[in-house]
Design a protein that fits this description.
about 300 residues, 29 strands
């Protein structure tokens, strides 16, 4: 079942210019938020919002204040491709020049010089044991336990050498499985010992993934969204009520509702029905490539046009 909802998407510009300071020379301090920046990743944990941009570094939103971290502060690059907050509250960033870790105000970087197989990072996540899993170009997944890097060549038989494809998404489920989505080899799963390839016959572009606290795994794909629970798969698409078949981002809110960003707006699944949200802003198109759910029920969305907040 499908329901269409026309809502206002709040461009919460916080209007820092209104509280900007004037120097002795009456120079206006510029706004320090990412709402008009090209957004590539959003991560929310413990009421803190982290936003990775395509050229302006990392933004942190906490207590109504934005802070910005760039290469001038020690990041490897100002293009952030992926984000995750680990179990200790440190922020891990994937870039095309390696991995950076923000712990408090201290930044640590990791590159091929430190053990990464390649510096071109496309996705990143964290498991229950605080291991960092890193998806890269050349179809590699790298596990970092805090000391050592272990590299896995996903679907090596098809990917070949040096490796076709990028790992665009990673997710860890309640059973300790690591799910990896590739543009070339589709969906793979690692159970800690062995890799399974072409899971659920998904053998091409997997874009996004998320795991619920209740044990569901959700996969975003160019043909819709797929959910797996107790090894049973369900496929959702425009025919079942979604706004579009091309899913670009997935997240799960505190009520276990599933939110997907598509190339035609946002869809929410409450367990039985889909609700579609149109974006009423000519300056921000319907292509929702990044999405994250906050505790207060708001959904933060991003694309190359900037950042917005959905209030259902």
């Amino acid at each position: 079942m499908m329901f269409n909802r026309i809502i206002k998407i709040s461009l919460v510009l916080l209007l820092t210019v209104l509280v900007s300071c004037f120097t002795g020379d009456d120079d206006l301090e510029e706004s320090n938020d990412p709402f008009d920046k090209s957004v590539q990743a959003i991560e929310i944990k413990d009421n803190v919002v982290w936003v990775g941009t395509a050229g302006n570094g990392l933004y942190k939103f906490e207590n109504d204040i934005w802070n910005n971290y760039t290469s001038e502060d020690g990041l490897l690059s100002d293009e952030i491709t992926s984000l995750v907050v680990d179990n200790d509250g440190s922020v891990w960033m994937g870039t095309k020049m390696g991995v950076a870790k923000l712990e408090g105000e201290n930044i640590t970087t990791y590159t091929t010089d430190d053990g990464l197989y390649v510096d071109d990072i496309r996705s990143i996540t964290c498991d229950d044991e605080n291991n960092i899993w890193i998806g890269t170009s050349r179809n590699r997944v790298i596990k970092f336990d805090g000391t050592n890097f272990t590299t896995h060549h996903v679907n090596a038989e098809f990917s070949g050498e040096p490796g076709m494809g990028h790992i665009h998404t990673l997710a860890c489920d309640n059973d300790g499985n690591v799910w990896a989505g590739s543009c070339m080899t589709g969906l793979s799963r690692f159970d800690g010992t062995n890799w399974s390839d072409y899971v659920n016959d998904l053998n091409v572009f997997v874009t996004s993934s998320a795991c619920s606290s209740g044990g569901e795994v959700w996969i975003g794909h160019i043909s819709g969204a797929y959910s797996c629970y107790n090894n049973e798969w369900t496929h959702y698409s425009e025919e079942t009520g979604m706004s579009d078949n091309t899913v670009l981002s997935v997240d799960i809110d505190g009520d276990e509702n599933v939110w997907v960003g598509t190339k035609n707006g946002i869809s929410e699944f409450d367990g039985s029905s889909w609700f579609n949200y149109a974006i009423e802003d000519t300056l921000f198109n319907d292509y929702v490539s990044s999405l994250a759910c906050a505790r207060d029920g708001k959904v933060w969305i991003g694309n190359s046009y900037g950042l917005k907040i959905v209030t259902p």
